[in-house]
Amino acid sequence: MEKQKVHYSELGLVNTKQMFSKAMAGKYAIPAYNFNNLEQLQAIVTACVETDSPVIIQVSKGARSYANETMLRYMAMGAVQMAREAGSKIPICLHLDHGDSFELCKSCIDSGFSSVMIDGSHLPFDENVALTKKVVEYARQHDVTVEGELGVLAGIEDEVSAEHSTYTKPEEVEDFVKKTGVDSLAISIGTSHGAYKFKLKPGESVPPLRFDILDECEKRIPGFPIVLHGASSVLPEYVELINSYGGKMDGAVGVPEDQLRKAAASAVCKINIDSDGRLAVTAKIREYFAKDPKEFDPRKYLGEARKELINLIKHKNQTVLGSAGNA
Ligand code: 13P
């Protein structure tokens, strides 16, 4: 059977345009939570409805093949329906995280995504511009918004991995935005993907993010939406819970919440969070099995994980990103 094309508006989704202009004016950031499965998506919707927060639900290439692209489309549609039935009008955007080719971005646009990222950050500047521009040209025809990236983040996320980071060069951002026509730009200011963001020696604390680079970028593209990847805080209580129930996650460290709050008040309009959700789920499942080794009903332990994820997301929306109450 041939794959059906569908426009995101038919699924009740929105692109990022209005979300970002409101976030810029209101000095908060839109949360972009990654998901791969039912419980994660239920938790994101429930928490965002309860906090009245706009939300970007995002999937990586790996998540798309894990969940199945058709299944994903209907999950996103179900997410919107679930929010509306709860009496909520929160805007929901379905976004491709780290698209690595024109073909993947096109396929997502054709199957109902309202926003895509084309990540050409590992390419030489001119090639990044050419690839990003090609995606923007296709996306425009469907009113889909596009995120580009300049500068490389270290760390691992599904297929995307880099050993070393390269900070964004502020002198390149204006030219990139002009030449490509992107709607938002991810920059590299010291965050990284995954749960091991900083290698700290005993007694050392996390180095501050490079707000000087962010300020320089803002000056060159005033009022333009900036995106922060690798923004999990790797909450110590989850790492401790995981380690106390048999896990081995020594040395896991993330971005302190006060730094994210500062970023959210700037031109940073979208903050990506994946690892924190993974940690919350893993911590609760480990705890559940340790305390009740006889249990074998997935609803029990996944239900506990989902509950924790709801608490975590509400906390992020209310006290870190400031998106609560802004739907
Ligand atoms: P974390 O690994 O810090 O959650 O970052 C996720 C991310 O940036 C997705 O693109």
UniProtKB/TrEMBL annotation:
Q: Which Pfam families match?
A: F_bP_aldolase
Q: SUPFAM superfamilies under this entry?
A: Aldolase
Task: Name the cofactor(s).
Answer: Zn(2+)
**Keywords for this protein:** Lyase, Metal-binding, Zinc
Q: Which domain of life is it from?
A: Bacteria
Q: Which InterPro entries match?
A: Aldolase_TIM, Class_II_FBP_aldolase, FBA_II, Fruc_bis_ald_class-2
Q: By what name is this protein known?
A: Class II fructose-1,6-bisphosphate aldolase
